[in-house]
Specification:
Rossmann fold, five-stranded parallel beta sheet, 51% helix
């Protein structure tokens, strides 16, 4: 078995990656970008196995049988490294000790179970509540130490960087030289959902590869339903209470959403923005333009007419502003209740 067997869809991206490997022109720093849930991490981990394989097939696919392939399949190859955003939590008390390595056991368990997960899943694995995951400065020093060592197996070294947009400027600046001129045989495989938030000087040192969205069928295979029903229920309640102008109930709704973690709140606001877009498009009566589940479409049948050219831009802007405020640690109760009051005016 190779890790490419776990990649759903994305045949064109797979061919490109393996083609570059066959031709000997793999960039030292690749950045896979695309929407959440498209399988970027699955591709990165699979390609890492291909880079480390001792006996690749003629088409570039890893053999799946050599010692390197077997170790990579378990995510335990000594020359395969991972770095990812973390929280300090109970494991880490001081920022100078804040390293991904403290959570490597949880990381291997999560990726081993499925490479199709999001930041909320990862926060739950770390036992985070209201914290936001980030890269601490100590992580930059740790990456440099790891990659300064010779390859244990005498071949390539691979560093998978998940969500580099979570690096603050100080951490990113310490890695600039390494990204530009890594040790010979070293490859960075970055996985980003928001490349515009990555420090520009890092972005300019990478070769970007766009990973397109999965089809609805592929997405459902990769992401068994979990909390989207809960998000839809919250969205439906939000819209109904706003339409009915039930201020007291909206305050209770806002207080409830405020108890969710910051990342969960941002995820919910992104979900709301997608629903607003889908309901606006629903009015065109062209089903091929919509990408909704059965439950979402059922709600849209009656609700879509309330999202129209008079309010769609304003509603979207307010949701996006709320997401920005949450990301900047503004008081969540204030953010969601203010949003609720504005929605009373906009949704009618």
């Amino acid at each position: 078995m190779t890790l490419f067997d776990r990649v759903i869809g994305q045949e064109a991206v797979r061919r490109r990656l393996l083609g570059d490997l066959q031709d000997g022109r793999v960039a030292h720093a690749l950045m896979l970008t695309g929407p959440e849930g498209s399988g970027k991490l699955a591709l990165a981990v699979a390609f890492a196995q291909a880079l480390l394989c001792e006996h690749p097939a003629a088409d570039g696919l890893p053999c799946g049988e050599c010692a390197s392939c077997r170790m990579a399949a378990k995510l335990e190859h000594p020359d395969l490294h991972f770095t990812f955003p973390i929280v300090k939590g109970s494991k880490i008390k001081d920022a100078k000790d804040a390293l991904s390595d403290f959570y490597i056991k949880e990381w291997r368990a999560r990726v081993g179970e499925t490479p199709y997960f999001d930041l909320n899943d990862w926060l739950a694995d770390m036992g985070a509540e209201n914290q936001q995951a980030t890269y601490y400065v100590a992580e930059a020093d740790n990456i440099q130490r790891k990659l300064a060592l010779k390859a244990s197996q005498g071949g390539r070294k691979v560093m998978v960087v998940w969500l580099p947009e979570k690096m603050n400027q100080e951490t990113a600046n310490k890695l600039l030289k390494l990204f530009e001129e890594p040790p010979v045989g070293t490859h960075f495989l970055m996985v980003s959902e928001a490349p515009d938030l990555v420090l520009g000087t890092i972005l300019s040192r990478t070769q970007r590869i766009l990973v397109p969205p999965l089809t609805r069928e592929e997405y459902n295979r990769a992401h068994p339903p979990k909390d989207e029903r809960q998000q839809l229920d919250l969205f439906i309640m939000f819209m109904r209470l706003a339409y009915q102008r039930k201020v007291k109930d909206l305050r209770e709704w806002a207080d409830h959403v405020a108890t969710m973690g910051r990342e969960a709140q941002k995820s919910f606001l992104q979900f709301c923005q997608r629903q607003v877009r889908e309901n606006f498009v629903y009015n065109f009566r062209l089903p091929e333009l919509n990408d909704q589940s059965e439950d979402e479409a059922a709600f849209s049948r009656n609700f879509a007419r309330f999202i129209n050219e008079r309010n769609v831009i304003a509603i979207t802007e307010e949701l996006a502003k709320a997401e920005t405020d949450i990301a900047q640690n503004v008081n969540a109760k204030m953010v969601f209740f203010d949003l609720a009051l504005k929605m009373i005016v906009l949704v009618r």
